Amino acid sequence: MSRTDARTPTARRAPGGRVRDGHAGPEDGPLVVPEPEERARAARERRHLLSVGDLGVEGIADVLRVSDSFVEVGRRAIPKVPALRGRTVVMVFAEESTRTRLSFETAAKRLSADVMSFSWATSSTKKGESLRDTVETVAAMGVDAFVVRHPSAGAPAAVARWVDASVVNAGDGWHEHPTQALLDCYTIRQALAERAGRAPEETGVECFAGLRVAVVGDVRHSRVARSGVLALSALGARVTLVAPGSLVPPSLAGWPPVSLSYDLDAVLPDVDVCYLLRLQTERGAGAFLPSVREYSAHYGLTARRARLLPEDAIVMHPGPMNRGIEIADDVADLPRSVVLRQVANGVAVRMAVLFMLLGAGAPGPDAATASTAGPDAGPVPAVDPLGGDGA
Amino acid sequence: MAERERRLTPPRGGVFVPRVQVLSHEDVQRALTRIGHEIVERNHGLDDVILVGLQTGGVPLAFRIASVLEEIEGSAVPVGLLDVAFYRDDIGIRPVLPEAVTEIPSDLAGQLVVLVDDVLFTGRTVRAALNALADYGRARAVQLAVMVDRGHRELPIRPDYVGKNMPTRIDEQVDVSLEGVVLGDVVAR
Predict the structure, then answer these.
(1) Do A38 and B13 touch (CB under 8 A)?
(2) What gap in Å lies between CA A339 and CA A350, rounded to an integer?
(3) Which of residues 159-188 of B touch A (CB under 8 A)?
(4) B120, closest residue in chain A (CA to CA)
(5) Residue ranges making up the domain that contains B11
C-alpha cells in the first residue's frame, strides 16, 4: 500500500484546489495541454458546421478519425449506439433532397437521437411564414440541432444566429456542402489506405499531400466543388478544375489556389481522383452551354476517357448521377467508381459530425459541476477520501 | 484508463507529477502472470474465453495476459479492443471523443468475456463497456480484470481479478503501463 504521504488533510486537499483553480481561469497562464485534449476542447467550442473551411486541417483530421469509429459501428449487427440519447435533431430541408436528408436521418437515428423532419412544401412557409419564424418556432419546442438545406447561400449561418441549437449546413445555394466534402475526404482516404494495404484508421491526413484531384464539370453552380476544394486544398491536395469556360465560377477570389483546365483528355492521365460534378440544370446550367450533348462530348467521362485514367485512379460523384451526361453508364458501374462507397461513408461521417457537435463538445447543463470533479465527473465528496479501499 | 483520464480530467490538460512508484515493471509482469493463472483456474480452462482490452490503457495489458494464457494452456486466446466513448454517461458534460477504433473479433454470444482495464475507479467506464459489449451479442458471462483497483466506486461494480488494491485520494492519478504503476497528481501549471 502506498500511504507514503502522511500530510495533513488540508495539505492533502491542496493539489485538488490548485487543480480546480487552474481550470477556473484561463488567464492563469498556458497549461501543458495534451494534444487529444486540446482537440476535444476545440470540438467543445465548435457549435456549428457551416463551412468546411472553419474546421481547419486538425478539425478535418478529427472528423475522419471519429468517422473510423462510426464505420465500425455501421458494420455491427446492431449498428446503433446510445451516444445522443435524448437529443433532438431537426431536418430543415427547404430544397428537395433525398440522399442527404436520409443520410442525416440515418446518422441521427444510429446515434439514438430523436429526429424531427418536416416537409417544406406543406409547412407554414407556404402560408407566408418566414424562415426565421419557422426555425424559431421549432427551436422553442426544444431542439439540439438543426440540419439546414436551403437554396439561398448563407441561410444556415443565419439560422445559427437566430437559435441556440447547433446548426449543420447540409447545402446552401451555390455556397457550401461541408459534410459532402468531409465524406469525400473520408472516401479518398479509405481508397488510398486500401491502395497502400493499410487500415483507414492507420492512415493520417498526410496521405492527401500532393494528391492530384480533377474536379470536372459544373463548378460554377456547385457547392460540392467549393467545399471539396476547400477541404482538399487545406489537406495539401493539388486540385485542377476542369470545366467549359462558362461553367467556371466568374471569380476564383476566395478559393484556394487551384489550376484550371478546359481540356479533360489532357488532365485525366495525371490524376489520382477524378471528381465529376452534376450538371445543375435546375440552377440554369443549361443556359451556359450550347447543348447538353456538346457538354457531354467534351466533359463527360466516357469509357474511352476512363481508360486514360491511371490504373489506380478513382472516380467520384456526389450524386445524383446524370448517367449519359457527366458520366457514362458503363463507367458509373466500374470498380474504380466509388460512388456507392461515398454514400455509405456519408452516414458514418455525418454521425461523426453530429456526435462531435452535440456529444463530444457541447457543455451540458451541469458542466460547471463536472469540471471540478474527478475523472469520471462524479461529485467531490466532502469526506476524507482516503478511507475508500473499494475492493 | 489512467492515460485517458489524465488527458481528459479537468482541468483539461495539466501535468502528471509522479510521486510514488507503487509497482515495478517486474511486479506488473508477476501480477499479470498471476491474473492469467486465476483466469484459467476460475474458468476451468480457456474454452470460449475472449479477452477484451479497454482503449487505451487496457489494451497492452490484454495482449500481455493473452500471451500468459497461451504459455499456460498452449492455445491462443482471441483479444478484442473496445472503445466505450459512445456509451459513456458523461457525453455532453465533458469532452468525449473516441480514442481508437473498436475491434471485436467475433460474435460474443455464448463467449466468456474477460474485460481488461488498467485502473478501476468510479466504475463508470466498466458500466459503459458492459453496455457496449451487449451490442456484440449475449456473452455467457463477463468478468473484469484490472491492474489497479483504486477505490471510490460510484456504481455497484467489482473486479474479478486485481493486480493491486491501492487506496487513493480521489484527486490523485494512477498511471499504469507495462513498465510499472505510479501514483501521482495532475497539477495545473
Answers:
(1) yes
(2) 17
(3) 159, 162, 165-171, 183, 185-188
(4) A390
(5) 2-187
- ipTM score of complex: 0.85
Determine the residue of chain B that is closest to A4 in CA distance. B20
Q: Do A82 and B131 touch (CB under 8 A)?
A: yes
- Report the chain A residue with the minimal C-alpha distance to residue B134: A78
Residues A353, A201: Cα–Cα separation, whole Å: 17
Which of B48, B154, B164 shows the shortest CA–CA distance to A381?
Answer: B154
- Indicate yes or no: CB of B152 within 8 angstroms of CB of A373: no
What is the tally of helices (H) and strands (E) in chain B?
A: 4, 8
User: Residue A140 is placed in which grid cell?
Assistant: 422553442
Chain B interface includes A228 (CB < 8 A): no
A135, three cell numbers: 426555425
Q: pLDDT tens digits for B108-142? A: 999 999 999 999 999 999 999 999 999 999 999 99
* pLDDT 10s digits, B85-113: 999 988 877 677 888 899 999 899 999 99
Q: Which domain holds residue A87?
A: 42-177+344-359
What CATH number does residue A334 fall under?
A: 3.40.50.1370
User: Which residues of chain B are within 8 Å of residue A386 when distances are taken between CB atoms?
Assistant: 167, 169
Question: Does a structural domain hold residue A368?
Answer: no
pLDDT interval class at B13 (50, 70, 90): low
A255 found inside a domain: yes
Q: Into how many domains does chain B fold?
A: 1
Helix (H) or strand (E) holding A171: strand A166-172
Whether residues A160 and A194 share a domain: the answer is no
Q: Is residue A98 part of a domain?
A: yes
Integer Cα distance of A76 and A304 in angstroms: 40
A157 with A182, same domain: the answer is no
